[in-house]
Design brief:
alpha/beta; Arc Repressor Mutant, subunit A; D-Maltodextrin-Binding Protein, domain 2; 3 domains; seven-stranded mixed β-sheet; two-stranded antiparallel sheet; 10 helices; about 20% strand
């Protein structure tokens, strides 16, 4: 007779492996510690294999335990996917959607997106998590989030990605900068274009080396054959733009940061396109777990986000 497993077997083994102890796992599963101990002992007897090594009060997976958990996790994901499909059919427009957004993009995008999405799905609870791109991708891969929107893509093989938009990388300068008068319209570029090689004498506001905006800007400077003079380094991109607006220096970053700041016309920095043959850009994508059926609730949120992002981009370039 073959080995038979059920969902509870996998869930209990997973809880113990995650918590490292019977006591904590029992609390997580809302059952008593003795009941969980008896269950695991009987499971090991039924399977004829040891799933855990008991080291004091710690429970460590054996090789067989790792095999069961690796395959079992995928089985649980498939179960959850099937249940999601059936729930959508049965319940129609009811459910919960856990969505992740980067901190700064959420400032302008979340209010209109959530407002429009609520009109489409008034009975869906949207739970929002704001975090950086690396953490958001990790959370959606683990199943802690259903959907995330990110610009710094790590190309995680367990995730599906859908392009939302490409943001041009632009040069932020004070609106009275002499570069504005030198800039010209160039086909294929969103804003007035300037040759970045003419900017070697400028002082720049910069982010820090661990930030994606810094890494992208450094690559662009290298493409143009110079290292910039750094006036100041700041963590927050919106702070950097405010510094530019007051004449502190120039700043190289995606255009979408400008959507999050309200300036008077006299204080607003000017955005200039840069690039040799083509503009530089940073992608913005939606991501969810690979192999899982994305429910209509999820796809509708992606569509609404894309629509509102395009709205902001269009009005910014008028």
């Amino acid at each position: 007779m073959g080995i038979l497993l059920n969902f509870r077997d996998i869930e209990y083994v997973s809880a113990i492996a995650k918590n490292g102890s019977i006591t904590l796992a029992a609390q997580h599963l809302f059952i008593s510690q003795p009941a969980l101990s008896i269950y695991i002992n009987k499971l090991e007897e039924r399977l004829g294999i040891q799933l855990f090594e008991r080291i004091g009060k710690r429970f460590m997976l054996t090789y067989a335990g790792h095999c069961l958990l690796n395959g079992g996790t995928e089985i649980l994901r498939m179960r959850d996917d099937l249940q999601g499909k059936l729930a959508e059919i049965v319940n129609g427009d009811k459910g919960q959607l856990r969505v992740g957004f980067p901190y700064i993009r959420g400032i302008t995008l979340l209010p209109p997106v959530l407002k429009e999405y609520r009109l489409l799905h008034p009975n869906v609870d949207v739970l929002v998590c704001e975090d950086n791109a690396e953490n958001l991708q990790e959370k959606v891969a683990k199943g802690e989030l259903d959907l995330v929107f990110i610009s710094h893509v790590l190309d995680n093989p367990s995730l599906e990605y859908q392009q939302i938009l490409s943001d041009p990388i632009v040069l932020y300068v004070p609106n009275n900068s002499p570069l504005v008068r030198k800039a010209l319209w160039r086909e294929g570029f969103t804003y007035l274009w300037i040759d970045l090689a003419q900017c070697q004498d400028l002082e720049f506001v910069s982010n820090f080396p661990e930030q994606k905006t810094y890494q992208i800007s450094q690559q662009i400077f290298e493409d143009h054959g110079f290292q910039p003079k750094i006036a100041i380094q700041v963590q927050n991109q919106l702070t950097a733009i405010h510094l530019v607006a007051t004449g502190y220096g120039a700043y190289l970053a995606p255009a979408y940061f400008s959507y999050n700041i309200a300036f008077s016309r006299s204080e607003s920095p000017t955005l200039l396109s840069v690039g040799k043959e083509h503009p530089y850009s940073m992608g913005f994508v939606a991501a969810w777990r690979r192999g899982l059926y994305p429910p209509k609730l999820t796809l509708d949120f992606v569509d609404v986000t894309q629509k509102n992002y395009s709205y902001h981009k269009f009005h910014q370039t008028l």
